[in-house]
Write a structure and sequence with these properties.
The protein is mainly β. Among the domains are: about 150 residues, Jelly Rolls (Sandwich), CATH 2.60.120; about 100 residues, no CATH class; about 150 residues, no CATH class. Strands 1, 2, 3, 4, 43, 44, 47, 48, 49, 50 and 51 form an 11-stranded antiparallel sheet that branches. Strands 35, 36, 37, 38 and 39 form a 5-stranded antiparallel sheet that branches. The protein starts with a strand and ends with a strand. The model has no long low-confidence stretch (mean pLDDT about 90).
């Protein structure tokens, strides 16, 4: 009898009976990676992010977001420490404090290129504070309208007005973003005769620093609609002389510009922003004006499901917007604010952890109560059956469980190169909760996808798809007491996060063959009982320092520590104690010493 434990290509599984698992799978795999074909390597964390390597941060770094600015060779990096939000600009190499009042639990970022802007604005919300930033300046969402009506008086025979009554209104305007306020109250009507002019006064200024111009509108003679008269190109002038004829006016005012409600999620879509997460209307998605990212008219929203249904996140798949709710997934058809309509799909499992919903190469992935699901555009299916018990209610000796009470807000995810990385709090058998990083390779063929578990002290993860990098902010400081952000799975090692690799193999039968007995007339018959073999010796092909625990029928029967292993030791056989006999054998392997990526590798174990 020979048992060969190698080719760990199917990653970590968690079946009810691990002897029923695939030969290539592991029952537990923590702090390991499959970078080396057919082998396990201590997971590779991590070189420090170049920017954060120059910073001194005395608390956890969260909500890290990187973007390459449109139309400029500029990279912006946003991040939060406590209630303060910062932005680093690669052109100026300067870091600004954007806000000290970010009190929400998670920040949503949405890049958009406003109508008149020459640089991308990143729209930011945490459910409390609503900001937009272009790497140089910060503005708050929405512009409050003027509170006072203008005043008007007739200039007899000094203009080209037609005979009739006139009213005026004015608005505040932001040239950088194309955002306009709702109009002021209308002034009282005045009646002009042909060729009169009009003095418009009391055009108030705004104390909002983003207001760069104001727009003055009036009715046509005796009319009710308002048309643009002039753009006042400053925020100081309070009087204007109107001599225009009605025929000169053509641009009609939009009277309902609106101010965005306070939401938790912003998503850019076809020059609009889709906004959701309004606690008062949880099933609503608000729609901004095209090229007016912080203008939301009063009736510019759609609702999905029933009034109590809660939209958790927004994801785009195959060019269509999908609404991830607690109950399932809906889809939005249409491409303009007036044509967007919601429809239900056949996906009737939703998410309770909004920040885990991310679009991958083959669908939208998200955390549900009983596992991780993939939505393919029509239906959703559980892709985490191999580790299914981790989504149960009771932790076990070889597996932790997802702590749903804290995962709702703290769990998050991202995609990089077809791998779904899920950062989720997990509870062990002692009740202790700490973050784990789960990795699921979606690019492998059906049935061969890999789940891996990384026991890392991360607070936040983010991917930089432009540079093919995955970053994680550490939950503990280095020896100097400083927190930082590290590149995960890089070629350099880090002293801040020492790995503790652990592997439990699947169970293998220790059977040598069939029992035979004499039958009638001297014939031989084969019984169904197999011969149980004795364990005699084993060898290890590995690098580094490891503890080996051998189990027979779920009983620990032998432990051994081996140090300084290398490829030169792969032919060395080690004897088991006498009288070791059982039906199933499996091995628990734990790295010791100071495991580092290149020093701790498991290639195979052979048992005889």
């Amino acid at each position: 009898m020979t048992i060969l434990i190698n080719t760990f290509t199917k990653g970590w599984q968690n079946a009810a009976r691990h002897e029923l698992m695939a030969n290539e799978a592991m029952y537990l795999c923590r702090d390991m990676s499959l970078d080396i074909t057919g082998s396990l390597r201590c997971r590779n964390l991590s070189s420090e992010n170049a920017y954060f390597a120059t910073q001194t941060c005395t608390s956890n770094i969260e909500d890290v977001y990187q973007i390459n600015v449109e139309g400029a060779d500029k990279q912006l990096m946003f991040y939060r420490i406590g209630g303060s939000l910062y932005c680093w600009n690669s052109i100026t190499n300067a870091t600004r404090t954007i806000s000290t009042a970010m009190s929400g639990e998670h920040i949503s970022y949405a890049p958009a290129l406003p109508l008149l802007s020459d640089t991308t604005f990143v729209y930011i919300t945490d459910g409390t504070t609503m900001l937009a930033d272009n790497g140089t300046t910060t503005i708050t969402w929405g512009i409050d309208p003027p509170e006072a009506a203008p005043s008007i008086s007739i200039l007899a025979a000094l203009g080209r007005l037609s005979a009739g009554t006139y009213r005026y209104i004015y608005t505040f305007y932001d040239n950088d973003t194309g955002s306009e306020s709702d109009p002021s109250p209308a002034c009282a009507a005045l009646t002009a005769v042909a060729n009169d002019g009009m003095t418009v006064s009391n055009i108030r200024t705004s104390d909002n620093s983003r207001v760069t111009t104001r727009r003055l509108y009036r009715t046509l003679a005796g009319g009710g609609s308002y048309y643009l008269v002039v753009i006042i190109s400053d925020n100081t002038t309070t009087t204007f002389i109107d001599t225009f004829a009605d025929a000169d006016l053509s641009t009609e005012a939009i009277l309902d510009q609106g101010i965005p409600p306070t939401v938790r999620i912003a998503y850019p879509y076809k020059k609009m922003l889709l906004l959701t997460g309004d606690d008062d209307y949880p099933n609503r998605v608000y729609i901004t004006l095209v090229s007016g990212p912080d203008n939301v008219p009063e009736e510019s929203y759609i609702e999905t499901g029933k009034s109590g249904d809660k939209v958790m996140n927004i994801c785009e798949l195959e060019g269509r917007i999908h609404l991830i709710t607690k109950a399932g997934i809906g889809v939005l058809y249409g491409e303009t604010p007036d044509t967007l309509l919601p429809q239900e799909t056949l996906a009737h499992v939703g998410t309770y952890a909004r920040w885990t919903a991310k679009t991958g190469p083959d669908g939208i992935y998200y955390l549900a109560n009983n596992g991780v699901y993939r939505f393919n555009g029509k239906t959703s299916s559980n892709v985490s059956e191999p580790i299914g018990r981790c989504f149960g209610n009771t932790p076990g000796r070889w597996f932790d469980i997802v702590d749903k009470s804290t995962a709702a807000e703290s769990a998050s995810a991202c995609f990089l190169n077809g791998v779904y990385y899920l950062l989720v709090p997990m509870k062990d058998i002692n009740g202790s909760v700490s973050n784990r990083l789960l990795a699921y390779d979606t690019q492998k063929s059906s049935g061969a996808q890999t789940w891996l578990l990384y026991n890392v002290v991360l607070k936040h993860i983010t991917s930089d798809t432009t540079r093919d990098k995955l970053f994680g902010s550490m939950e503990k400081p280095d020896s100097a007491g400083s927190y930082s952000v590290y590149e995960l799975f890089s070629t350099a090692s880090s002293s801040i996060d020492t790995a503790t690799p652990e592997v439990v193999s699947k169970s293998f039968k220790t059977m040598e063959g069939q029992k035979y007995s004499l039958g009638g007339a001297g014939g031989i018959t084969q019984s169904e009982e197999l011969v149980i073999a004795w364990l005699r010796k084993f060898r290890v092909d590995a690098d580094g320092d490891w503890d080996f625990d051998f189990y027979l029928d779920d009983r620990l029967v032998y432990s051994l520590s081996l140090s300084n292993l290398s490829i030169d030791d792969n032919s060395t056989w080690h004897d088991f104690p006498p009288n070791l006999k059982g039906r199933y054998v499996y091995v628990n392997i734990t790295g010791t010493g100071t495991p580092q990526p290149d020093s701790h590798i498991i290639r195979e174990i052979e048992i005889k």
